[in-house]
Amino acid sequence: MNNQEFSAAFEAVIFASGEPISIERLCQIFEISSEKVQEIAEDLSDKLEKGKRGIKLLKLQNTYQLSTEEKYAEYIKKTFEIKRRTPLSPAALEVLAVIAYNQPVTKSFIEQVRGVDCSSVVTNLVEKGLVEERGRLELPGRPLLYGTTKNFLRCFSISDLSELPAIQKDVPQVKELGEQLSLNDDEFSEKSNESETE
What we know:
This protein is an alpha+beta fold and 198 residues long. Helices cover 56% and strands 14% of the residues.
């Protein structure tokens, strides 16, 4: 197949899949290298963008998925009679930010950063498919670890966590929090050293 035929077949397979499909799986389907898959994906993405189509190709970590353009969301909602979802609360956005920038994290870590109980907020984010369980921490009680999902990447229109905006460390609240965490770490180290000498 030439590049144009590959691009068409590639589009058909991703469309039919409906879910994100991995580069590895596409390599198996088309019997080509991962470099070739990414080359075809970039070509298809350019064609969709230049053609001003109603769909676009998303790269979510090591997977690809076709998605509708955001500007047509109103019509899609009307078509499927989708009820408008309530936006995330400020508390949910804060918890999501803590998880996204520090993952995998435990619920107790999130609560230490925010200073309040986060159980219901974390549960809500898991139900929305923005956060998922990532195993357990090897500590007494084996607390659950949480991280963001591919749905999180899709909702925020980023392909990888490296595209998250940089944290502004010069913001007073962030400086204060950093100092508090640093002091906590120092106190912990001092206590550890004292126990070792004893």
